[in-house]
Amino acid sequence: MEKIEHTTISTNGINLHVASIGSGPAILFLHGFPDLWYSWRRQLLSFADLGYRAIAPDLRGYGDSDAPPSHESYTVLHVVGDLVGLLDSLGVDRVFLVGHDWGAIVAWWMCMIRPDRVKALVNTSVVFNPRNPSVKPVDAFKALFGEDYYICRFQEPGEIEEDFAQVDTKKLINRFFTSRNPRPPCIPKSLGFRGLPDPPALPAWLTEEDVSFYAEKFSQKGFTGGLNYYRAMNLSWELTAPWAGLQIKVPVKFIVGDLDITYNIPGTKEYIHEGGLKKHVPFLQEVVVMEGVGHFLQQEKPDEVTDHIYSFFSKF
């Protein structure tokens, strides 16, 4: 871990903290919520040993990167803009791209908007969902799962932050990372995260040191930056109207755990395995479903995920 270099890059009007190691073809790793560059720590080391330049930023709002105060500064266009500027600053023309959770959503949109900057994509956890012109995404989730669905609960500024503040940050991180329940997470306001049972003992893949690292960063930064991605979902929907109907035309491999809540959303398995995803991502070459694996697959099964990524990128 001490071999990983940490720098600050100025891009798109903000400063991003960037972790990187190695030399060779560049791979850009994008994290999600509630996460940091640190979620890719094992992949950074592995790919440096494999002859790649492995790069993982704290996305805007997270860790040691800047956190603009308004949720309107967290659309997918803002974040893709950050990444284009990051690549320019690093002197990287085209990159191998890997995303997870919100990082996966950003990765899909980077391939949509700037396919000229992407050699190939390995995306995990979150499938590409084409823009529905008739309904905003938060409204769609509310109609499907109700107002207690976590994305809906995250919408009101300050409300969920107050809830989080009543829970020890280490326990909160543990709850997020170790959940094995594939059902849609719904948290009634009357219960809140503070009312959930204590998390189980840490699994072998997540150490006290890991949890402490996350807890320290989120205690310093707060969760608002990460939550603002959810609060900007409807605004992103409005701003991405010009790209409605376009396909993603870069080579893609998709990986998901069968216990991931995203994989168990009604209709998702059929969409992935019966041609729906391929229709919108025509250069989709492989789909991997990892058995017995939850949402944070790159941490739960780091060596397997590294092998899946390497087997794909080594073709190019």
UniProtKB/TrEMBL annotation:
The keyword Hydrolase applies. InterPro entries: AB_hydrolase_1, AB_hydrolase_fold, Epox_hydrolase-like. It comes from the Eukaryota. Keywords: Hydrolase. Belongs to the AB hydrolase superfamily. Epoxide hydrolase family. Epoxide hydrolase involved in the biosynthesis of cucurbitacin and mogroside tetracyclic triterpene natural products (e.g. siamenoside I and mogrosides IV, V and VI). Cucurbitacins have cytotoxic properties and exhibit deterrent taste as a defense barrier against herbivores. Mogrosides are nonsugar highly oxygenated compounds used as high-intensity zero-calorie sweeteners; they also possess pharmacological properties such as regulating immunity, lowering blood sugar and lipid levels, protecting the liver, and acting as antioxidants and antitumor agents. This is soluble epoxide hydrolase. It comes from Brassica napus (Rape). The gene is BnaAnng20810D.
